[in-house]
């Protein structure tokens, strides 16, 4: 068919769709939708009874983006920074803005250091991590792991083998380094 | 209390943690009765989101019963059944005053580019989430709403994010009567977006995914025309063929950071974390929409750069619209739609998982085992 001015005809008319689909056209008017327009100035709408909220006490030096003027009046208090990962995080927040890749790469690196630290901590405290249990991999047996993947034409199956490799990478690298060190020590005797 | 905690990529467990405390006069403590695992939780689970700390509790979709309130809370009392939007917001900053609750400037010290989200890393404010027996809810006078008496708890929990986000995504598409709408991704948000597109008068709704069980749901739940991209050499060309070679009027990316369909993109972004997300679905949306059309982005992406086809978007004169959903703004209308029977949010729930089995829950959802579309979490204190 040639390219013409008209919009291609649809298989079903609005009346057909209204009859077939519950609620079709209930929000037909584009101006009468909850988020239209995006910005509607109405400071009383939310039910807040403050103009600027009271400040939450800062019980430890709370890391913050250097793009903020000050520490926000309310903030999350989950998992304060600690150890080497905490130092990396604090440095990243203090030094780089959100616009810098270094900021995010340092935070991602800190996340990996955090995992290693937590692993060591769990060993030292005598409560080693239950690695297999924590991956939830037992559900492969109880929830049809093979049947959910085989013959399903799923594109993600090609990279599923990478997942355990990512989860096990720190241990494989650690074991490799340990083996190399032991071997070198044995050679030097 | 018992709470899910993150232990590193692909690893979570249940731990005994201290109960959250009132830390601000307008806080509430909520005893969680239902939570859910969201597709965007999987980005955290896979270690993609910067500053996701070991020991954090995830979960931004939850409902529960008010257990305690701070001294300045006026609108809630202990014993109230509440649903809590995934956004943490103050109600009065520059952005909240304009209804942009997802972009609050007073709740996330870690970043200015994103507001506060429960249980979504320190990049989103460092708040513990609701996959636990109890959770701290800041700004209790502006965030939570009482669950309507007629509403089922399983429906309410889905309205705290997935339904609202899908509905919001359809709105950002600026759909007008007779529009052809294509939704990339048949997870819960994509399915609700498809369903919402009809409410806004779409003339044709197409859903693209690679999981047959989700496409089946798109046909039965969202009345959509479906295509499995794995069965097509080039899904963009196929989209053009079925739209008279013009493209769709509106395309919705309901996939986000871990899109499949291009192994190189997936591995560099989702596995090696060299991009803020694998923009396969977003690029397909840009390619599949007609010139002058609108792309609505609901998929969550990380703060790093991603290889997005901006040249095509510019050359085609596209409108790109995106945001985290300001959930509470959607609720009055969504309550009407649920009550009128246009939506039954819990129709998408496929699995109900006790909190103590959270590790299995995450693995089932992440690996898409057992035809899992939406898992709910039932805490012991429920």
Question: Your description of this structure?
Answer:
The complex is a heterodimer of chains A (189) and B (382). The mean pLDDT of chain A is 92. With 189 residues, chain A is mostly helical. Chain A contains six helices and no strands. Chain A starts with 13 loop residues before the first helix and ends with a helix. Chain A is extended and about 85 Å long. The longest helix of chain A is centred in the last third of the chain and has 26 residues, at 162-187. Helix content of chain A is 42%, strand content 0%. Chain A has helices spanning 14-20, 83-95, 101-124, 131-135, 139-142, 162-187. In chain B, α4 links the parallel β10 and β11. Chain B is globular. In chain B, α3 packs across α4. Chain B is an alpha/beta fold and 382 residues long. Helix content of chain B is 26%, strand content 23%. Chain B contains eleven helices and 17 strands. In chain B, strands 3, 4, 5, 8, 9, 16 and 17 form a seven-stranded mixed β-sheet that branches. At the A-B interface, α1, α2, α3, α4 and α5 of A face β2, α3, α4, α7 and α10 of B.
